[in-house]
Design goal:
Elements (H helix, E strand, L loop, with lengths): L2 H16 L13 E8 L2 E9 L8 H11 L8 E4 L13 H8 L3 E4 L11 H7 L3 E4 L4 H6 L1 H9 L3 E8 L4 E3 L11 H11 L4 E5 H7 L16 E5 L10 H4 L6 E5 L10 E4 L10 H12 L3 E4 L3 H9 L5 E6 L10 E2 L15 E9 L2 E8 L6
Parallel strand pairs: 3-4, 4-5, 6-12, 6-13, 8-9, 8-12, 9-10, 10-11
Antiparallel strand pairs: 1-2, 1-3, 7-14, 13-16, 15-16
Length: about 375
C-alpha cells in the first residue's frame, strides 16, 4: 500500500469516527484519531478515539487510552488525526504533551489549527523530535473541521440551510402551501438536524405563515436544545405566536431593526438594516456568536432570507430535500429571491458531499466550495 493510500484510509476512518459526536462538541471541533503501526502483513490499528463531548478528553488522548486498553505500546507508532494536535491548556491539557510522552514517532493530520492559543502544535512536536505532516489525502478529514475554522476566522456561526423542494425548484405553491412537499422520513431527518445545532432560524414571514415550534421532536436523543431565532425587520412577530408563547420553555430570540417590544421571555437583538432593506444578516449572525455563543445555525427560512444569506455568501452547508413532484407554476415560490444573476457565473455553486434516497425523496448534502490546509 502506498503512503498516500494508507494516509487516506487512516484519515477517512478518523473522520468517520469523529462524526459520531456531531452535536456534542460545539464550540469545539469534531476531531477523530487513529494510531497505527506498519507491519509485514499491512497496517495494524492499535488505537482509535474521538472527541466525544465539549470538555471531555480530546481525540488524541482518547486514542492513546484505547491503545493501552488493548494492551499495545504506542511508542514508535504513527498517529493520524483530523486536526493538528493542540498545544494549549484549556479544559484539557495539551495533546502535544500526551503525544510526546507516549513516544509517538510520526503525526499525520488533515488540517492546521488556526486558533491563536491552540494552533501551532506541529512546531512543538517537531521540536520534540516527532515528525509532523499535514496531508490533504482525505477530503472527508480535511473538511470535517470547516465549521470550527469558520468560527475562528470569520467570527460567526456555521450556517446550515435546509429546504424541501419539488423537482422544478419550488418550495411552496403560489398560495404558500408547503406542507408537505416531502415525506415522513425527510421530516424526521429535519428533527434530527434540529437536535444537533445551537439555533434554528426563520424569517418573520415563515413564522407568520406556519406558526412553527421549531423544536426537535421524536428523536432518540436531543443533543442540543436549539435557540429559536426569528429575523423580524419590522418587529411584527405576533405575541400570540407559538414561538412567543413558549419562549419561557425554549430560548427564543427576535432579531429586529425596529424598536418593537416583546415579552421579557423573548430576547431581542437590535441590528441595522442591510443593503436590501431588511435585517443585516451578517451583523445578526456575528452577534449570535459573540453575544449568545451560538456555534451552528440551521436555517429553515423562506426565499427572502435564503436570498439574503446567499447574496452575503453566508450559506456554508445545505441539506436539500427533493420530492419527485413538479408544479410547473411560474408563480410558485422559488428557493431564493432578491438576487440579480443575469449570468450562470453569478450563481452560488456548492459541492455535493453526498446524495441519498430517503423513502421516495432524495437528500442532497452540500457544502460551499473551497477548503485549505492553513
Amino acid at each position: 500500500m502506498t503512503d498516500e493510500r494508507r494516509t487516506k484510509r487512516m484519515l477517512d476512518l478518523a473522520a468517520r469516527v469523529a462524526w459520531r459526536a456531531w452535536g456534542d462538541t460545539d464550540p469545539n471541533p469534531l476531531v477523530g484519531c487513529v494510531i497505527a503501526r506498519e507491519g509485514g502483513r499491512g497496517d495494524e490499528i492499535i488505537g482509535i478515539g474521538h472527541h466525544r463531548r465539549f470538555g471531555g478528553l480530546h481525540a488524541e488522548r482518547e486514542a492513546l487510552a484505547d491503545c493501552r486498553r488493548r494492551g499495545h505500546d504506542p511508542k514508535g507508532a504513527t498517529l493520524y488525526c483530523t486536526l493538528e494536535p493542540c498545544r494549549h491548556v484549556g479544559k484539557q491539557p495539551p495533546c502535544t504533551e500526551a503525544v510526546i510522552e507516549a513516544g509517538i514517532a510520526r503525526v499525520v493530520y488533515a488540517r492546521r489549527d488556526p486558533g491563536h492559543e491552540s494552533g501551532g502544535g506541529c512546531a512543538v512536536l517537531e521540536t520534540a523530535g516527532v515528525e509532523s505532516v499535514c496531508s490533504d489525502a482525505s477530503m472527508l478529514a480535511t473538511r470535517l473541521s470547516d465549521p470550527f475554522i469558520c468560527r475562528v476566522r470569520e467570527n460567526r456561526p456555521w450556517v446550515i440551510a435546509k429546504w424541501a423542494q419539488t423537482l422544478d425548484g419550488k418550495i411552496a405553491t403560489r398560495t404558500g402551501e408547503s406542507q408537505w412537499i416531502t415525506g415522513p422520513l425527510m421530516r424526521r431527518r429535519v428533527h434530527r438536524l434540529r437536535s444537533r445545532v445551537d439555533a434554528v432560524l426563520v424569517g418573520s414571514g415563515t413564522a407568520a405563515a406556519d406558526d412553527p415550534m421549531l423544536t426537535a421532536r421524536d428523536v432518540r436523543r436531543v443533543r442540543r436544545v436549539a435557540t429559536r431565532v426569528v429575523l423580524d425587520t419590522g418587529g411584527r412577530l405576533s405575541h400570540d405566536s407559538a414561538l412567543v408563547r413558549t419562549a419561557g420553555q425554549t430560548p427564543t430570540v427576535v432579531v429586529t431593526a425596529s424598536e418593537a417590544t416583546f415579552p421579557a421571555s423573548v430576547r431581542v437583538l437590535r441590528v441595522g438594516r442591510g443593503g436590501d432593506g431588511v435585517v443585516d444578516v451578517t451583523e445578526a449572525l456575528g452577534r449570535l456568536w459573540t453575544e449568545l455563543g451560538v456555534a451552528s445555525v440551521l436555517v429553515e427560512a423562506g426565499p427572502r432570507v435564503l436570498g439574503s444569506l446567499l447574496q452575503a455568501g453566508l450559506i456554508d452547508e445545505a441539506f436539500v430535500h427533493i420530492a419527485p413532484m413538479v408544479l410547473g407554476d411560474a408563480e410558485a415560490m422559488s428557493v431564493a429571491v432578491g438576487r440579480t444573476a443575469p449570468r450562470l457565473t453569478d450563481g452560488r455553486r456548492l459541492s455535493v458531499v453526498r446524495a441519498r434516497a430517503l423513502g421516495e425523496d432524495v437528500e442532497l448534502w452540500c457544502r460551499r466550495r473551497g477548503t485549505g490546509q492553513s
